[in-house]
Description:
4% strand, two-stranded antiparallel sheet, 4 strands, 7 helices, mainly alpha
Amino acid sequence: MNDHYLKEKEGLYSTENLQTSLKRRSFLKYAGASMAIGAIAMAGCNKDDDNSPGMDEGVYLGKGDIAILNYAYALEQLEAAFYTKVAEAPYSGISDLEKSLLTDIRDHEVAHREFFKAALQANAISDLEVDFSSVNFGSREQVLATAKVFEDLGVSAYNGAGQLIEKGEYLLLAGKIVSVEARHAALIRDLIQNGSFAGSDVVDMNGLEKSLSPTKVLTAAAPFIKTKINARDLPTY
Length: 237
């Protein structure tokens, strides 16, 4: 798996119990996002502040494209936290190859998370508290099954949100990120069962990836997120 765009030459981002090489400037160039960051920040200037009705009901995602970007940021936080834990305490009997592949995925997800955080700036939601108590991280079967859920959910989430994004540059960024998530999903599926990368449960009879609305995605992700999310203004269908 090629992750050269993640390699840092001059510094390190720090995460909890993790020092992973990430070159933010290179990643933004990779994603075609340098110009979009300013636009995202400007778009959030009109978002509701803490005085907004319902803010006490949970972490408020915002409105319009900002809400969609924070929605994606929340999912990337969840995935990054999961793979960081997998890398910190690999499951029993993990092979060197599997450890390397899962570490690559961790690096990608951390990069996605940090990208959204940097792009949203003051409009970014806070760090979410996750709950992986239902996952036995010592079990290969459970770890890969949970990874499959997250990756399939991530791909369907980006595909579902695409039609709701208003700005073309944001849609371009989502397309670049979802293509990486799809690579992850295919890999995880093949680690579970060789040749299952494009099962009929995720690819329809026309050869198109299935999608889910933001409402359905957040409902599916809810058991793994302790922090209550206020998505009242998140575009959906």
